[in-house]
Amino acid sequence: MPPDTCRYPQHGAQGIRARYATKRTKDYELFDGEGLYLLIRPNGSKLWGFKYRFDGKEKLLSLGRYPELSLAEARLRRAEFKVAQAKGIDPGAKEVVAPVMTFEEAGRALECHVGHTVHASARGLALTLDKRACER
């Protein structure tokens, strides 16, 4: 059959195996290679995963559900993760976002907006009206 009339040109044998994978009594995995696998759950759901090692530890990443995430897209994500690993970056590490404002700045903005000052004491919190809150 010529390639342009092939029904699954981008999938190959792995795509067909993923499409027709049946549920079993236990979880099982279909491996695509280089850490990419499809996890088939007993309830029939199919989830893409990426297994890799970083700093001597084995780690797992969830990529998404099949068929919402196709085999071709999962392979692209695997390639992106491999590039990140080659640069020494952990693909599964969460980016730390710096706070937009400090706690003190947030408190001053709240005082300005509400017009009250919050005082902490041994007996609890006390609110007082402070017209000068925005002048600080």
Automatic annotation (TrEMBL):
GO terms for molecular function: DNA binding. It comes from the Bacteria. The keyword Amino-acid biosynthesis does not apply. Residues 17-94 form the Integrase DNA-binding domain. Pfam families: Arm-DNA-bind_3 (PF13356). The keyword Methyltransferase does not apply. Transmembrane segments: none annotated. Keywords: DNA integration, DNA-binding. Belongs to the 'phage' integrase family. This is Arm DNA-binding domain-containing protein. It comes from Sphingomonas psychrotolerans.
